[in-house]
Specification:
Elements: E1 2-8, E2 11-16, E3 19-24, E4 32-35, E5 38-41, E6 44-47, E7 52-54, E8 57-59, H1 80-87
Antiparallel strand pairs: 1-2, 2-3, 4-5, 5-6, 6-7, 7-8
């Protein structure tokens, strides 16, 4: 049962018999969302001391990129297996 309901722009707070229920409105828009060490904003996705995907590009943050499929087209990345097969010939 809902006792009170407030609409504060992007969030709905409901006081119920069980406590407080918090909901985001459908299609809510935020300038930035941070959870733990990860931030998502208009510049991209950044993990503190880790990888980032931003307007400037992809920075692996000195981390290994794994499970890369074989490149096929001229502008695709190659993986170590493909590189080894070329150097072995």
């Amino acid at each position: 049962m809902i006792y009170k309901k407030w609409n504060l722009h992007k969030i709905i707070y409901r006081l119920t018999q069980d406590g407080i229920q918090i909901e985001l409105l459908k299609d809510s828009k935020f300038d930035s969302v941070t959870t733990g060490n990860t931030t998502l904003n208009t510049n991209g996705l950044t993990i503190k001391e880790g990888p980032s995907i931003t307007k400037q590009g992809i920075n692996a943050g000195s981390k290994q990129i794994t499970n890369v499929a074989d490149g096929i087209n001229a502008k695709d990345a190659v993986n170590v297996d493909q590189l080894r097969s070329v150097t072995a010939k």
